[in-house]
Structure formats: C-alpha cells, structure tokens
Automatic annotation (TrEMBL):
Record domain Cyclic nucleotide-binding: where: 12-114
The protein's name in its UniProt record: Crp/Fnr family transcriptional regulator
InterPro entries the record matches: cNMP-bd_CS, cNMP-bd_dom, cNMP-bd_dom_sf, RmlC-like_jellyroll
Superkingdom in the source lineage: Bacteria
Pfam families: cNMP_binding (PF00027)
C-alpha cells in the first residue's frame, strides 16, 4: 500500500533513511472514499494532505451555486486545500472524489510532529510547497495568457487522463469556459 508514496518521498529526499521513512509511515492514515464523496468541505478545516493511492480527486470553489474547478489529482499525486490545512482555518474550496478513491492522509498534527522531530521532513515539505507553487503559477499563467483552445490543447498534450476520466463540464470549468464553448472547441479540433 505504501510503495508509491515511499517512492515519492525517496525521489524528493534521496537521503531518506529507513528509520525516517518508518516514522512517516507510522503517521499515515489510509482512507477510502466512494465516488462523489467529499474529502474536505468548504467552510470546514482541511484535516490533511492527501496522497492519492488510487482514484481521482478534484478541488473546486462554489460561487453563486456554480462549481469552479481549480485542480485535479490522480494516482501518485498530492491534493489538499493547502491554505486551510496550513493555517487550520475554514477552507474556501471543497475537495471531492470523482471515482472510488483510496487516499493516504498525513493529518496536520502528525505532520507538525514530523517537522519538529525529523528535520529531513522540513526539506520534503519545502519541496512539496515549491512544486505546488510552480503548478499554481503555471496554471494561472495558462489561464491568463492562453486562448481557451490552447488551454484545452495543453490538457490533451500534458494531462490526457483528464479527458478520459473527468466529465466535460468539469473540464470546461477547469479551463475557464462554458461546457458549450468546450464542445465547440472539440468539434473544431476534430475537423
């Protein structure tokens, strides 16, 4: 069960010892969520950082009853409402699962304990935060500078699994357009 997440951490911090890994492993919590379940609800504190062992999760805002998707995570990736998790304040986004999903959760208090007692995890946390910053920065740049057609092409080229696993209306929201507009783009690209 922990092979994928162990490999993830060993790539982040190659000098991770067996003892340091064991300390992390002992703090991890395995959670199962059926398709459609909420992992983190807007307005509640996000209780963990979630490594997706199996399945697919989505992060989204709700504005005037409309869901605005800001991210997805599949097997081997992390997802969390990081602002809420790090500040232990109410989340501004919700996180749900789009398929039956198994998550490996590192709860806040257990992560803080690792930071206090095993400095190598401060390095891992920094690298994860840096990776998240780069991901968000690139997403924002694409959203602000690319046309909707180019944003969709980016997903085809770099995140094709989303096209296969995510409903079209969620993809449209992620790209920042209406489902009808995405349908027109797809028809134009097929020609």
């Amino acid at each position: 069960m922990f092979d994928g997440i162990r490999q993830y951490y060993q790539e982040l911090i190659p000098k991770l010892s067996d003892e340091e890994w064991l300390q992390l492993e002992n703090r991890l919590v395995i959670e199962s969520y059926p398709k459609g379940s909420l992992v983190c609800r807007e307005g509640e504190n996000c209780k963990g950082v979630y490594y997706i062992h199996k399945g697919l999760a989505r992060l989204y805002y709700t504005v005037d009853g409309r869901e605005i998707c800001t991210g997805f995570a599949k097997e081997g990736e992390y997802l969390s409402e990081y602002d809420s998790f790090l500040t232990q304040s109410p989340a501004s986004q919700s996180m749900d699962v789009l398929e039956d999903t198994i998550i490996i959760n590192l709860p806040y208090e257990k992560m803080q304990d690792l930071y206090r007692n095993y400095p190598i995890y401060n390095q891992a946390g920094r690298k994860i935060a840096e990776g998240l910053f780069i991901l968000i920065s690139r997403y924002n740049t694409r959203l602000l500078t690319l046309s909707p057609e180019d944003r969709y092409q980016y997903i085809i080229d770099n995140q094709y699994h989303l096209i296969q696993r995510v409903p079209q209306y969620m993809l449209a929201s992620f790209i920042g357009i209406s489902p009808e507009h995405l349908s027109r783009i797809r028809k134009k690209m097929i020609r």
